[in-house]
Predict the structure.
Amino acid sequence: MQVTIYRYNPDFDQKPTYKMYDVDTSKVHGIMLLDVLEYIKANLDDSLAFRRSCGGGVCGSDGININGKNSLACITPFKELPEKVTLRPLPGMPIIRDLIVNLDQFYTQYNSVKPYLQTHSNPEKEHIQSIEQRDKLDGLYECILCACCSSSCPSFWWNPDKFVGPAGLLAAARFILDSRDEEKESRLKDLDDLYRLYRCRSIMNCTTVCPKGLNPNAAISKIRDEMIKSKTTCTEPHHEHD
Amino acid sequence: MGLWLCTGRFGYYSGMGNIVSILREKQFDAIIVGGGGAGLRASLELSSSGYHVAVVSKVFPTRSHTVAAQGGINAALGNVEGEDDWRWHMYDTTLGSDFLGDQDAIEYMCKHAPDTVLELEKMGMPFSRDENGKIYQRAFGGQTRHYGKEFSVHRTCAASDRTGHAMLHTLYQQNIRAKTQFLTEWYAIDLVKSESGKVCGVIAIEMKTGDLYFLNAKVTVLATGGAGKIFKSTTNAYTCTGDGLGMVYRAGLPLQDMEMWQFHPTGIANVGVLISEGARGEGGYLTNSEGERFMQRYAPQYKDLACRDVVSRCSAIEIREGRGCGPNKDYVLLNISHLGEEIILKRLPGITDLARTFAGVDPLKEPIPVVPTCHYMMGGIPTNPQAQVIDVQKGKDQVVPGLYAAGECASVSVHGANRLGANSLLDIVVFGRAAGKHIKGLLDNGYEQETVDQGALNRSMSRYQRWMDNKAGPSYSELRLRLQNLMQKDFGVFRTKEAMQEGLDGLIAIRHEMQNATISDHSKAFNTALIEALELDNMIEVAYATALGALHREESRGAHSRIDFPNRDDKHWHAHLITYTDGRVAKRAVNMKPHEMDPIKLKERDK
């Protein structure tokens, strides 16, 4: 297997280069692309830098661009890839070193939607939530913040400081649709903005690449629906008088 | 370059007069090393109180290994049976621990479990729900009601089969709300101690720049998680390298019960990815090559929900006696297809994905190949139930001033010789919170920092300098692989004196070679080879402690199964084992004094 990897070390590189590694995959312990990267680091070149942690697709560390498509190295079987593979850091993000990108902007947008439950009540035991109410969180709470979606989104490339991006909006939807949350209106108001929400043009790259099979685009549609419902409710008296 | 000369606080010079490293400094009331469940629960307690606290984490917090926990968190809420009692939970935990758990600590954990879980729900944790809209609870291994008399109980609170993910994200989100300061992708190298022995913070490296810092803190909490990466085959993350344990060992403090490693019965064969005990909790079962549900034979009452140490041993025996499955007869099968698509996709969607991705089987139709796989470290840094780290001086417990530990890195000890499933998520939040509360009390009373002398800082940086200086010698990755293969071979499910002695000798040799081991990358920015090398220093200490304890304990108890000493021997070995980095081993009494109930007396475990 020929693995070509984007290399850049800010300590001494003026500009990035690509380096090709010839890997005998019969020597690789494991079946995933991450195992190939581990093999390269342990046996061929310990200066190759990439993030990884759980190795099972739940921690979201090893999002990279594999032959042009973002995914997690740890759940990409290398046998399903062509003989020649090119690995790049997630696009549209500042590069720290090799396959490691700076995700500060991504996290800032996530934080901006106040991704925590806001309630004013304090029940004696747990909040009661029906199975149906809880079902609404499925497909939203499972996000692992790997950034594969936001870094494949042209709207986010263009306005990373203003557009919340698919991951942040998925988190917003997770709280807007949580029956326990009591700040739905203020959450919607915060997103009712040309950039924060409405820069989403339904390009769908987010949904295509999500390694967890989530659908940020559908989540964004749900926020839009809630936005319309909320506005209709507010303006209803006017309609009646018209 | 052993000696460091200095000019003032910030400039550090080698003996040759060259600047080798600049040491910057930051001050905090408290630093927490580790951003998993225990660390984030502790930090939440402290930042909500307005203290200047920082979480130092080598990965972005939601990448911590808490995220991979699947099945759930135990609490005697009684949502299913209508009746449960934390005392029954305590009974199960104590028996599960094979009586090596400290009963005061187990009592504290089980009693506070319901509050702690309800608190998580109020923070927004997306628990699954039952028909009444309450937290969904499932069955798990080793759990009973009425002190072992009834074998059906649903005590494990779950968010589908992604409970750890739901918990870790919720705790991180609450820390965003509380404005906790994060030093993300910073790696703690070693503790800094004052002359009187008080812990005054850590030396840490900011990975992005490679800059070194003295994080000067009144209180240091270690919440660095497990160390399963010392084994070749493990369900643990790459990052589970026992960093806190290595730091404590090098500081001259002891580790406890390090021979106790849990092998999870259902790691996917050949890949080491975890399939939750929840699969059996929902009604799944194991079979051998003859299609026999073999756990019914070994444990007629608990069956497939016997304690993990028991099930793992039974699987290992089945494989050893030739009843393993597959071309090499080296695994057993986990069957869940009979549960039906609806239950599987609702309750076990995560493991369904994992089985498809890593084992290439569709669990809706076929069984999953599984083997006992290293999963959890019951031993660790000895602490009291307030999470204060303990040293033992002349046979007596002494609190180490300024140092706390919580979660998997700690041995408080609630798990003793074998942890019950879904008690680890409970452990981390209960004792993370306990640490936070105790530290808050300390700081409220004006706990002050001590000054640190130069020698202490220099000592704590020597390890960094060694890796940067070594130019010729074996590579760190070669030694790491040798270590992992050795541990897998000599310290697995079944142990003998001969194999372990060979293993210990091998470890001593690796430890010696480590002094000359090298990385070829000496650059500063995000040098992951350096971080892995520093992690390997910790792994070798953890492995050494494991070998010392395992060789010394001449009995079989919980996860420690010796072929040459097949029985539990309470007369000689009902005691914790503490070991030091210089090879000393000593016994420490197991606490048998709960405060609110009669002690649970030593007896054989039920089957």
Notes: Chain A touches chain B through 58 residues (CB under 8 Å). Strands of chain A lie at 2-7, 17-22, 63-66, 69-72, 84-88, 95-97, 100-101. Chain A is about 35% helix and 10% strand. The first helix of chain A runs from residue 33 to 44.
